[in-house]
């Protein structure tokens, strides 16, 4: 019951105050989902990163724990799939993805992320990167020359949008997430967000900010692109629900197995407003005719038999221990630094009191540790910092990395 009430508060649907109880928030009504209108069109359309030399501790953000890949569970699921797969299952099939996987995904995402969608709303794609590329192509074709992005925010996302001809408008964030006032000032009608665990600051979009953002999106059919890139990795509580469940016709939802299983699988999903789905499906078909069939069927099997959930529980415990080890090492060897963000994800942000973070990252690199300077991921002015990924290193190696970082940043003794 406590978690249910907390989820309502997190989504901005209720507000709670000590001594006053919990009440429905003002303007908290969820818009109805329109009836399906693209099924006929759907059927008509059926015709990372290597480690540099000299680096023995790679703390780049976004590098998952590939050693944790569930080989035995994947092999069992693949054998089960091959025992019953038909010849037609291995053909080109629907460019939107395997019907079985899409059916399993909508059930799992509804239960774990609060997503509201039908199986036909899911577009299986080659990870979040392809989903973003498809959205960029469709939106540019519709006249959207600019998109707003969080600042600081993912440099990879910004670079990819630029590649597809999109001008990105930086919008500052604070401890509650993106600032909607500056977002309005950009004039952009689309914004790309990481609301469950913002990259790279690690903050969570606050309930009041969620409501304000959804109100912005409801004006003139604006669009929120929700990158839910590591929401399954929350260590202190149940993660806040996805924005998509509150406004399916204003949010394009992106997810993948890159951070939970392996990025090399190139398997993700896009759930977009229905007004965009036919164009997105056509763009996907033109791009590659559809994603690889066998990995889709294996992932569907893992979702069906519960092995995917069991794997996530194991990985969460493993990653929490690694995050704790890195925090302990930083407290011991870099006490002047401030760590930002909630207990979640596969990276953390260390804000530094002063200095050029690019130069600082080079100093750290000289000790054999690879980190990202915060300035790589921002265009607006702000404090220096380092973005540290911890997923791919063991606790003892993370403590060693913290010691080297502290050594690199400590002033020389006279």
From TrEMBL:
<dbReference type="InterPro" id="IPR051446">
    <property type="entry name" value="HTH_trans_reg/aminotransferase"/>
</dbReference>
<protein>
    <submittedName>
        <fullName>GntR family transcriptional regulator</fullName>
    </submittedName>
</protein>
<dbReference type="InterPro" id="IPR015424">
    <property type="entry name" value="PyrdxlP-dep_Trfase"/>
</dbReference>
<feature type="domain" description="Aminotransferase class I/classII large">
    <location>
        <begin position="57"/>
        <end position="396"/>
    </location>
</feature>
<dbReference type="Pfam" id="PF00155">
    <property type="entry name" value="Aminotran_1_2"/>
</dbReference>
<dbReference type="InterPro" id="IPR004839">
    <property type="entry name" value="Aminotransferase_I/II_large"/>
</dbReference>
<dbReference type="GO" id="GO:0030170">
    <property type="term" value="F:pyridoxal phosphate binding"/>
</dbReference>
<dbReference type="InterPro" id="IPR015421">
    <property type="entry name" value="PyrdxlP-dep_Trfase_major"/>
</dbReference>
